[in-house]
Amino acid sequence: MMFRNKQEFKKEFSQRLIEAYGTTVDQTHPTEKYLVLGEMVRDYASVNWKDTKVAVSENQAKQVYYFSMEFLLGRMLTSNLRNLGIYDIVTEGLEELGIDYENLASMERDAGLGNGGLGRLAACFMDSAATENLPVNGNCIRYQCGLFRQRIDDQGNQVEVPDMWMRIGNPWEVRKLKHSVDVKFWGNVEVHGDENGNLHFNHVNAEHILAVPYDMPMIGAGTKMTNTLRLWSAEAADESPSWMDYREYLSEVNQICLNVYPDDSTEEGKYLRLKQQYFFVSAGIDSIINTHLKQYDTLDNLGEKVSVQLNDTHPVLAIPELMRVLMDDYGYSWDRAQAITMSVMSYTNHTVMSEALEKWPVEYVQKLLPRIYMIIDELNSRYGRFLNERYPNRQDLWYSTRIIDNGMIHMARLAVIMSHAVNGVAEIHTGLLESELFHEYYSMWPEKFTNKTNGITPRRWMLYSNPELREMLKSHIGKGFETDFSKIEKLMNHVDEPKLQEEFLRVKQKRKEILAAYIQRSTGIIVDPSSIFDSQAKRLHAYKRQLLNIMHVIYLYQRIKSDRNFRIYPHTFIFAAKAAPSYVFAKKVIKLINCVSKVVNSDPDVNGMLKVVFLPNYSVSMSEVLMNGSDVSEQISTAGKEASGTGNMKFMMNGAITLGTLDGATVEIDRLVGRENDVIFGMTVEEIESFRQTYRAMDYVNGDERIRKVLNTFIDGTWNGDRDDFRTIYDELLMKNDEYFVLADFDSYVQAQEQISARYQDRHAWARSCLINIAKSGYFSSDRTICQYADEIWNVKPLKF
Ligand SMILES: *Cc1c(COP(=O)(O)O)cnc(C)c1O
C-alpha cells in the first residue's frame, strides 16, 4: 500500500530498509537509505504510471516520442517528491527518524547523460510535458558513464575522470526485458524479385545486438500524468556472428553504451558514434511500432497516432529506419512509406555553425548499415528528380541542397527534406535558418519552418532550488504562479515597492551566502557575499567567449596594480565550464582562468576588490546552486553563434541581470525586460556579417593599449612563469585573426561592465531590475515551449484522466 501520511511513510521506510539490508535503520549507510527511498518513490509513482498507460490506450491518444541522444537529467529525488506532492510528508518523516533529508538527497549522483544545453532541454521538456498532461516519451541510450567528471590539477589543467553515475544503483529505472528488440549492424543486403515484380531486401550476415530498455518514470507536477523515458542498453544476443571473433563481438557490444560522447559541437569520431545513433534509433522505432500494433492492427494510421521529434541531427537515422521497417517488414510501397514517415517526423535544429553540422562518409554508412544506406541513396535520387521537375533550370539547387554531397551524407539536409516540420530554438536562430543555412529549403517549403524558443522548467530551476525566492513571491502575488508560471508577471505590479525590493535583496544575499559556502567547500576560496557575483557557467567554447571575460578580469587586475587611485566595486568573477577532452584551445582557456585565479586571489593589492573562482565539474546540480546565487549573468557569445542558450533563462528567473550580446534567446530577454533592466553590448549579427571581410585583429592591438597589455601576459610568463603555455591563445587572436571578434567587442564589454558596477550600487534600482527580470521570465518556462510544440507541430492534446 502507498503511504498516505507521515506515520505510514515512517513505518514503510523503516520496514523496507530492514528487509533490503537486514540491519537496523541506524546501521544502514546513507546510500542505502537513498536507494530505498528512491525505490519507494518510484513505486509510489507506478500507480500513476500504469494509469497513464491505460488512459493513453483507452483514449487512443496520439503519442509523442522525443528522440534525443542526450538527456541531462541531474538528480531526480527532490523533483520527484515535489512533483508528487509528498515532499513534506517524506522530509518530516525522515526528520522524525533522525535522518537529514539534504544529506540523503546528496547521495544521488547526477544522471549526466548529456553534454550541455541540448540534453538539458530534453530533460526540461520531459518535466513540462508530464506537467502539462501531454503524452511525450523520451528515447535515449542508457550510458554506463555519464559525461566525464572534471578535476583541476595543481597547474590548473582540466583532468577528465570517469563518471560512474550508476555505481550505487539507479532506483528510478525499471528493466523491461520483455520489450527487448534486435538491432543489426554490418553484413550485406540480398535483393530478390517476386512473381509480381516487387523487390525484397534481406539484411544477411549481420551482427545482432539485443537492445534492452530501462524505463524511468517522468513524473508531472500536480497531475497523475507519468510519461516514460526509455533508455536502451546493448547486450549480447544469444548468437555471435560467424565471421567475427567471439571476444571481439562482446567488446563491440560493451562499447555501444559505454559513454556519452564528450563533444556537442564538432563532428565526432567515427563508427562507434554512428553505431550509438543507429542503436537507440532502431530500437526506439521498433518499440514504437510494437506498441502501435498492440493497439491498432495497421500502420496506415501511424502518422495520426505517433509523432517523433528529432532533437538535432543525432537521431536522424530514424527517418530511413522507419522507411525500412514500413517497406521491408510491412510491405508498404516507397511512396506510402515516405508519406507516413514524413507525417511522423519533425526536426529541431540546434546550430548554424558549419563545423558542427553532422556529416557521415558514405562508406561508413554503407558498411555499418547497408540497407539504411540504400534508402538514403534512393531518397537522394528521388529528391533530385523532384527538383528537376519543379525547378528545371536550377542545377545550382541540386548542388547546394542534395543529401549526398562529395561522398558525405548531410544529416541536417536529410532531416529537413524528410520532416513535415523544422524548427529553430530562438527567434534570431530561426531567422538565420530561414535566411542562411536552410534558405533554399525555406523558399521551397516556407510552411515547414517555425520557431520554438527554448524554455526551462521553472520547478527545478526556481521553485524547488530557490525556496527563499518562492516564498517571497508567494507572499506578494499568491500561489497561482506555482502551477501556472505565466502568472509570475503579476509581480510587475509590485516592482516599485521599496519593501519588496529590500526583501528581494535579503533573499539574494541568502542565496549568495549558500553559493559562497559551496565555493569554499569545492575550491577553498573564500569570497565575500557582498561583492558582485558575476557568473559565466556553460560549456567552454571559443564562440561563447569565456576568453573575453577573463581578459576583462586581467585588464582590471593590471589597472588596479598600476594605478593606486583606481577602485572598483568588489567583484567575484565565477566561471564553470567543461571543455571537450580533445579541444586544445578550450582547455588552455580553462588553464588560463585557473592561473589568473591563483595570482589574483593571492595578491593582497587586489584581492579586497577582485576574486576569481573556477568551480570544477560544472553540472546540473551545481547550476541549481550557482544560478540563483548570482547577480550578473554573462551571456557574451559572438552574435549569431548561440542558437538559444538556456542558462540565460535560469539566471533571469532567479533575478540576475543579463550582461550580454544580442544573440540567441538573450534577444528575447532583452525585448521583454527592456534595455533599462539588462546590459547589452557588442556587435550585432548584421554588424559582424558586414565587418567580417575587413576585420583585422591587429588593428585592435595597435589601437588599444589595454588590449596590448592583456595580450602580452599570454607570452611573457605572467601567469605561471611559462612564456609558451598560453601562446595558442595569443595566436588564435592574432595569427588566426580572432574568428570570434573578442578584440572587436572588448571596449564595448569593458564599458558594459562599468555600467554593471554603477547600477549595482543603487541597490533599490538594481533590485527593481531583478524583480522585473523575474516577473518577465514566465515566457521562458518550458511549459510554454512544450505546449507550442504540442499545438503547432505534434497536434496532440492534453490527456485528462
Ligand atoms: C543550462 C545548462 C547548460 C546550458 O547552458 P548555456 O548557457 O545555455 O550554454 C549546460 N549545462 C548545464 C549543466 C546546464 O544546466
Automatic annotation (TrEMBL):
One of its GO terms (biological process) is glycogen catabolic process. InterPro entries: Glycg_phsphrylas, Glyco_trans_35, Pyridoxal_P_attach_site. The modification N6-(pyridoxal phosphate)lysine is found at K650. Allosteric enzyme that catalyzes the rate-limiting step in glycogen catabolism, the phosphorolytic cleavage of glycogen to produce glucose-1-phosphate, and plays a central role in maintaining cellular and organismal glucose homeostasis. Phosphorylase is an important allosteric enzyme in carbohydrate metabolism. Enzymes from different sources differ in their regulatory mechanisms and in their natural substrates. However, all known phosphorylases share catalytic and structural properties. Its EC number is 2.4.1.1. The keyword Mitochondrion does not apply. Keywords: Allosteric enzyme, Carbohydrate metabolism, Cytoplasm, Glycosyltransferase, Pyridoxal phosphate, Transferase. It catalyses: [(1->4)-alpha-D-glucosyl](n) + phosphate = [(1->4)-alpha-D-glucosyl](n-1) + alpha-D-glucose 1-phosphate. GO terms for cellular component: cytoplasm. Its main location: cytoplasm. This is Alpha-1,4 glucan phosphorylase. It comes from Stecheria intestinalis. It is an enzyme of class 2 (transferase). It is found in: Cytoplasm. Gene3D superfamilies: Glycogen Phosphorylase B (3.40.50.2000). Its cofactor is pyridoxal 5'-phosphate. GO terms for molecular function: glycogen phosphorylase activity; pyridoxal phosphate binding. Belongs to the glycogen phosphorylase family.
